[in-house]
Amino acid sequence: MPTLVKRLLAAIVIVLLLVVINQYMSKEGLFGFGVPSYYARLIVLAGINIILAVSLNLITGFTGQFSIGHAGFMAVGAYSSAYLTVYYAQAWERSLGGIVGNSVAHALIFLLAILVGAIVAALAGLIVGIPSLRLRGDYLAIVTLGFAEIIRIVILNIDSVGGATGFTVPGYANFLWVYAFAIITIVIVYNIVHSDVGRALVSIREDELAAEAMGINTTRYKVLAFVISSALAGMAGVLAAHYLSFLSTNDFQFIRSFEIIIMIVLGGMGSLTGAVLGAIVITFLPELLRTLGTRLESLLSSMIGANNIPAPVHRFLIDLANYRLVIFAALLILIMLTRPQGILGTREFGLSWLKRARRRPEGDKPVGSGGVPVAEQTPPSAIDRAKEVKNQ
Amino acid sequence: MDTFVQQLINGLTIGAIYALIALGYTMVYGILRLINFAHGDIYMVGAFVGYFLAFQLGFVTGPSLVGLSVVLIGSMIVAALVGMAIERFAYRPIRKYARMTTLITAIGVSLLIENLFVARLGAAPRAFPQLLREQSYTLFGNAAISKSQILIFAVSVALMVLLQWVIFKTKVGTAMRAVSFNLNSAKLMGINTDFIISFTFALGSALAAAGGVLTAQYNPQIDPLMGIITGLKAFVAAVLGGIGNIPGAVLGGLLIGIAETFVVGYGQNVGVPTTFRDAVAFAILILVLLFRPTGLLGSTVREKV
User: Fold this and answer.
1) Highest mean pLDDT among A181-190, A368-377, B274-283
2) Using a CB-CB distance cutoff of 8 angstroms, which residues of chain B are in contact with residue A337?
3) Which residues of A touch B243 (CB under 8 A)?
4) Taking 80 as the threshold, does the pLDDT of residue B196 lie above it?
5) Best residue in B88, B187, B286, B296 to probe A by mutation, most A CBs within 10 Å?
6) What is the per-residue pLDDT across A40-83, written as a single tens digit (0 to 9) for each?
7) For A196-216, b where at least 16 C-beta lie within 10 A, e where not — what string?
8) Cβ(B29)–Cβ(B276) under 8 Å?
9) Do B104 and A156 touch (CB under 8 A)?
10) For residue B139, what are the β-bridge partners?
11) Which residue among B105, B283, B294 places its CB closest to the CB of A333?
12) What is the pLDDT of residues B31-58, one digit of tens each?
């Protein structure tokens, strides 16, 4: 089986590459070179956000079901796995370490924690999904938001996971773990989207009634997408918990869910590469804005001399750091006003895309219903037109 | 029994505030099908405008009814202008786009207002000046009702009656109902839909600002992030009552207010911690939506192909 061999080779190359980069990103560095810990941390957080954005894209971008509860499933994964690693992992690791060696035992235990986090989050997704997915549009959105808030408040009241004071967790995760699972997430979602299940999901997004009429069990597929999406979010939660080494329910407020939605809308809903791009932009942009003022100031002083900068300009540049979130919000609105379909729309970024972009210089297309560029929608049939009239 | 009446009064007070804010959510949703996430922040802006008006106009020296009315009406007017500006510059250009785009824009506006206020004024809470000489009256034995609670009931009932009159007895109200029924047909009938939408935002924002000033009288602590949770609960109230439905918003607001105070008051007797205060609104919402997917008073729209 040559394709299998090819894929295995690719996997091995990717893992080796990740191991090398992981060493480069670690405190010790690679041959004395290393990334400053501030940037290393941001890069890892971007990886966690990639998992979250790609997984939310499955339910919101491809299936068209609007969920604002992703942070809740992330919390479920984070706390359930943290409970395991805090209360049981050490004992298990010691007894297992005698058999297979300490580092292997360490990795196995964390793998188990990730599995547990994903399964518990999937169960939560199932419990939330079955009743909620009867609802549509904004009602579904508000119910998922409600479930996420309830999950958060329930966790807040469990004393064995720290309650309001927070929960200290062993730091198992690093760059390697996070990006290995980010790649796994992307592969899983890519394979789902490009299978018959994926076509069913997209048909639900395009027109739920028509999908049902074509014999697609819409409820089943919606719940399936929701459960997979929750499991992946739970996985991201496990990684975040064991990378940050500290859990607080404040980190899982609905604003966190909004953040993930912003990532996929910004990148382009229904685009995998778009979700990745959105996650990276949303992770780095606020941090870039934090240092924008001092950067501009040093640039200006190198051009005209530090003493020649007028006082109000100086004060403005110093102030800029305080306004970073204001600028962030303003940029968000501006992007939505100028590019409502997101950076990539429903397209995927790749080499073929670059070639096509050169052939089609007009670029932007107006967006029709469901975030789909008008040009990609088929012209309305007589049935569509009749439906529009009836709906009015 | 006394504590029950007391809890009921306290619950209705909070519920009346939720109802005032929920009206804005429900009106905007009714017309544009847009969840205006910035609406909770308008409530906060209202409270802050009231705060600065009270200081600028010198009403902080002592309680006065004139001062209170000026502050209340002034903040309602300013908030109405802010609401119209948000609609004009953020929502109007994207009205035609996909739902998700408008939603993200609404979240963006909300973040913008919150962070602008935090950056300008700091996140620390401020004490709102007392414009009403606080006094308690005894009702039914041991239950007490304070002057600020009476104020909240009186003003919110007056505003709701006024709103009802505007919507059902005036020409602009008829136009509002027409636009919410069908925007395009309303346009064909010669209604200036842009003006009506703008007017709806002004009305909703004024009500939210009134809610902000009234809350600040009842609980004199305001901060730039006070609108997040309150706004969210008011939105839940609007959905609970049936979004787009005006009596529904009032009903939903009162229900959630009462449920919340009952959780705080009686929850511990049945093993529910007081922190579930913030969860009960969502729990009620989920239960109701499971059985009535369009809310308590919402009408069912059958989907046809």
Assistant:
1) A181-190
2) 90, 93-94, 105
3) 138
4) yes
5) B286
6) 899 999 999 999 999 999 999 899 888 989 999 999 999 999 99
7) eebebbbbbbebbeebeeeeb
8) no
9) no
10) B143
11) B105
12) 888 889 999 999 999 999 999 999 888 8
Q: Number of A to B CB contacts under 8 A, please give it.
A: 135
Q: What is the DSSP string of B34-49?
A: ---TTHHHHHHHHHHH
% of chain B exceeding 90 in pLDDT: 56
Angle B84-B86-B89 from CA coordinates, rounded to 5°: 105
Find all residues with CB under 8 Å of B129, minimum gap 6, and list them. B51, B54, B55, B59, B60, B220
User: Which tokens go with B211?
Assistant: 């809610």
**How far apart (Å, rounded) are the C-alpha atoms in residues A81 and A32?**
35
Are the C-beta atoms of A384 and A368 separated by less than 8 Å?
no
Collapsed DSSP state (helix, strand, coil) of residue A100: helix
More confident residue, A138 or A79: A79
Both tokens assigned to A215:
């014999």
- Alpha-carbon span A151 to A310, nearest angstrom: 52
Nearest CA to A369 out of A335, A329, A327, A340 is that of: A340
Contact status of A89 with chain B (Cβ, < 8 Å): no
**Any B CB within 8 A of A387 CB:** yes
Backbone angles phi, psi at B251, to 5 degrees: -60, -50
Does any CB of chain A come closer than 8 Å to the CB of residue B299? no
Residue B298 in domain: no
The one-letter code for the residue type at A370 is: G
Residue A246 makes CB contacts below 8 A (sequence gap 6+) with A166, A167, A168, A169
d(CA B39, CA B83): 8
Whether B169 is covered by a domain: the verdict is: yes
Is B98 in contact with A391 (Cβ distance < 8 A)?
A: no
Q: Which residues pair with A167 in a beta bridge?
A: A247
Measured in Å, how far apart are chain B's first and last C-alpha atoms? 54
Output the pTM of the full model. Answer: 0.85
Distance from CA of B256 to the nearest CA of A (A): 14
Tokens of B286: 């989920």
| CB spacing of B305 vs A383 below 8 angstroms | yes
Domain holding B68, by residue range, is: 2-291
> Which residues numbered 226-255 in B keep a CB inside 8 Å of some CB on A?
228, 232, 235-236, 239, 243
Q: Which two tokens stand for residue B83?
A: 């609401």
The ipTM value here is 0.86
Ranking A97-101, B201-205, B260-264 by mean pLDDT, the lowest is: A97-101
Report yes or no on B134 lying in a domain.
Answer: yes
* Residue B136 backbone dihedrals phi, psi, to 5 degrees: -110, 140
CATH number at residue B51: 1.10.3470
